[in-house]
């Protein structure tokens, strides 16, 4: 349990959560880390803490550099408890420790930890002179809570970006050149798709503000620290926040007796025949957070559900509700499903497509009971004809 040196007097003192498998509904097969950072000097400053149950790990790492009671200030970039959860235990060791945070952070932290918390606001433009180090603060409201801010350490050109650029990715390596880069970027995409996606405009604003800074290290609050691949992660955030697609298709469905599944396969045949890179997701097998990672960058989205008790299947409703909250943009869509008598599911799927202002690829297709070969071929051909150049 040692601190990891990032630069002279700058250390990673966070915790690795190897066994985390669910982060409020987002499946985290790769675990996560909660990154806290220690800057030592005339003032000893901690940036963020960790989840409450991992306080001892953070504390042990800090103690390999300075005694805990030598801390002078906590900078809190974000109220959410994966970063602030260590505050109550920290205050037991350092009573009255001052907490510098955004104005919204002051209100949020007090609601979490009590009015007596010794908070000071860092309003936009505020700079902190801490002897040999100066810090500036960049408010990034709604990336992804109202209180979020970034902290920039001017002398070392380190941007402490909190959730931005993060990944739920537990590893022994702390830097982008110490892990599998493909994996780190894949986890960064999943993180963006499931946490940051609704806030494209705010991310673009934050990227514009950050582009004025000379950044040599991006130190997020989850996963690895970016030092060799900063242009790459910035480029990807630029594309994701602009809602760019890669031309691919996602087919997402559930099925009761394989009829809607057959329709999904027919749609797949149409997309693939038209030269579109396509993935099929069966909602019984694939978690909605993994599906959303691909949907985020897909151009086409086809969603299929049979009708059960006058409704789409609950699995399809869960996916669509989740997707609606994440508000992807610019999809071209198709709804389909089999039915026995009511047949309401396809219209219900299309209603959600309409709310998201998606463009219709083809009118929805409903098939009674079991689709015949001819009906399936019609789906394939219709998709192919619509897409082929
Ligand atoms: Fe990693 Fe929004 O907390």
Describe the structure.
The protein is α/β, with parallel strands linked by helices. The protein has 2 domains: 4-241, 4-Layer Sandwich (Metallo-beta-lactamase, Chain A), CATH 3.60.15; 249-388, Flavodoxin domain (Rossmann fold). The protein has 12 helices and 24 strands. The chain has helices spanning 55-63, 81-84, 87-93, 103-113, 181-196, 200-210, 230-241, 259-273, 288-297, 314-326, 345-355, 373-387; strands at residues 4-7, 10-12, 15-17, 22-23, 26-27, 32-34, 37-39, 45-47, 73-76, 98-101, 119-121, 127-130, 133-139, 149-153, 158-162, 217-220, 248-253, 278-282, 298-304, 307-308, 311-312, 332-339, 359-360, 365-368. The strands form 6 sheets. The chain has a 7-stranded mixed β-sheet with strand order 1-2-7-8-9-10-11, with helices on one face. Helix 6 (200-210) runs antiparallel to helix 7 (230-241). The longest helix has 16 residues, at 181-196. Bound molecules: MU-OXO-diiron. MU-OXO-diiron binds next to helix 2.
Structure at a glance:
With 389 residues, the chain is α/β, with parallel strands linked by helices.
Mean pLDDT: 97
Net shape: elongated
Parts with pLDDT < 50 across at least 5 consecutive residues: none
Q: Which structural class matches the secondary elements?
A: alpha/beta
Distance N to C terminus: 58 Å
How much helix, percentage-wise, in residues?
A: 25-40%
Using the coordinates above, name the CATH class of the largest domain.
Alpha Beta
Question: Roughly how many Å is the radius of gyration?
Answer: 24 Å
Bound molecules: MU-OXO-diiron
- Could you tell me the CATH topology label of the largest domain: Metallo-beta-lactamase, Chain A
CATH superfamily of the largest domain: Ribonuclease Z/Hydroxyacylglutathione hydrolase-like
Largest sheet: 7 strands, mixed
Strand portion, in percent?
15-25%
- Strand segment count: 24
| H/I helix tally | 12
Named CATH architecture of the largest domain? 4-Layer Sandwich
């Amino acid at each position: 349990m040692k601190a990891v040196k990032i630069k002279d007097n700058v250390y990673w003192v966070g915790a690795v959560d190897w066994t985390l498998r669910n982060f409020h509904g987002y499946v985290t097969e790769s675990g996560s880390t909660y990154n806290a950072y220690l800057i030592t000097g005339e003032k000893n400053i901690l940036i963020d803490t960790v989840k409450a149950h991992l306080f001892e790990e953070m504390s042990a790492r800090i103690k390999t550099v300075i005694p805990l009671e030598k801390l002078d200030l906590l900078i809190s970039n974000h109220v959410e408890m994966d970063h602030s959860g260590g505050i109550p235990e920290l205050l037991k060791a350092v009573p009255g420790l001052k907490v510098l945070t955004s104005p919204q952070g002051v209100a949020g932290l007090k609601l979490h930890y009590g009015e007596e918390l010794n908070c000071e606001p860092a309003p936009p433009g505020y700079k902190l002179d801490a002897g040999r180090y100066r810090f500036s603060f960049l408010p990034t409201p709604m990336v992804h809570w109202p209180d979020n801010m970034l902290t920039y350490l001017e002398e070392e050109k380190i941007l402490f970006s909190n959730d931005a650029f993060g990944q739920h990715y537990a590893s022994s390596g702390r830097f982008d050149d110490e892990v599998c880069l493909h994996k780190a970027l894949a986890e960064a995409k999943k993180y963006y798709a499931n946490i940051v996606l609704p806030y494209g405009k705010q991310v673009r604003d934050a990227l514009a503000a950050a582009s004025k800074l000379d950044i040599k290290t991006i130190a997020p609050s989850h996963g690895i620290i970016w030092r060799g691949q900063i242009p790459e992660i910035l480029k990807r955030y630029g594309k994701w926040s602009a809602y760019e697609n890669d031309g691919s298709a996602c087919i997402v469905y559930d099925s009761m007796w394989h009829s809607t599944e057959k329709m999904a396969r027919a749609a797949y045949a149409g997309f693939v025949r038209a030269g579109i890179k396509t993935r099929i997701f069966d909602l019984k097998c694939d978690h909605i957070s993994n599906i959303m990672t691909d949907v985020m960058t897909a151009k086409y989205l086809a969603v299929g559900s049979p009708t059960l008790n006058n409704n789409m299947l609950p699995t399809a409703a869960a996916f669509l509700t989740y997707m609606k909250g994440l508000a992807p943009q610019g999809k071209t869509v198709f709804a389909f499903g089999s039915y026995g008598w009511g047949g309401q599911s396809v219209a219900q799927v299309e209603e959600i497509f309409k709310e998201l202002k998606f463009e219709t690829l083809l009118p929805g297709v409903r098939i009674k009971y079991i689709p015949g070969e001819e009906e399936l071929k019609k789906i394939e051909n219709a998709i192919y004809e619509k897409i082929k150049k």
